[in-house]
């Protein structure tokens, strides 16, 4: 059964608007998901073959992202998991593999949703391009803050590059981006201090429990430590700021 691309595109725009974003601008998906009600975001190293997972428990959702992958790929994976959060009524737990554009119908739909959600490809982004060069691929990928793999997938789907170009543009992305003057952190994994972290609803709820005296100080700290938030318990981030 062929995917309804128009339906998925409309879903992507619908969620952009729901989250207070415009139809076409780049989106800081990492920041946005932290404000979604009842959604917790977990960063955790998961090995080479898994990009992330989405677990629904009642009205709560946990999105876990493989922090061993590049920041750009993590952004795409978060958007992919948002599809499962909002539109996947079939599975309560979904484990998503690394490869983009492969898998069952639900996974293919989630990839297309992520591509449309993160990379609207407005005419101003690709205007004046007779051919999408490697330099342009990097420029657009930096603009939308996605991995090179995700950017090539989007351009291929749109018919803006050929499979031969895509193969050619997969090589030496970090070196090429650096030579063009770009920050290459987009193509690298999370720093060691951020490879294990929980954000969003879970952290907010632990704070609420403490405020309402439903947990002791010790239990509050235990809950945060179990969510890899030693920085809140011990004030690591504050100390780093003072030392900068």
Question: What is the gist of this entry?
Answer:
By secondary structure, the chain is of the alpha+beta class. It has helices at 5-18, 29-33, 71-87, 105-118, 123-126, 134-144, 148-157, 163-168, 173-179, 201-211, 217-226, 230-234, 236-243, and strands at 39-44, 50-57, 60-66, 93-97, 197-200.
The DSSP helix count reads 13
Helix percentage range: 40-55%
The rounded Rg comes to 19 Å
Estimate what percentage of residues fall within beta strands: 5-15%
Q: Describe the global form.
A: globular
Task: Measure the end-to-end span.
Answer: 55 Å
Notes on the structure:
By secondary structure, the protein is an alpha+beta fold. It has 2 domains: 5-182, no CATH class; 197-243, no CATH class. Helix content is 50%, strand content 12%. It contains 13 helices and 5 strands. A 5-stranded mixed sheet has the order 4-2-3-1-5. β2 and β3 (60-66) form a beta hairpin. It is globular and about 65 Å long.
Question: What topology emerges from the helices and strands here?
Answer:
Layout: H1 5-18, H2 29-33, E1 39-44, E2 50-57, E3 60-66, H3 71-87, E4 93-97, H4 105-118, H5 123-126, H6 134-144, H7 148-157, H8 163-168, H9 173-179, E5 197-200, H10 201-211, H11 217-226, H12 230-234, H13 236-243
Parallel strand pairs: 1-3
Antiparallel strand pairs: 1-5, 2-3, 2-4
Helix pairs in contact: 1-4, 3-4, 6-7, 10-11
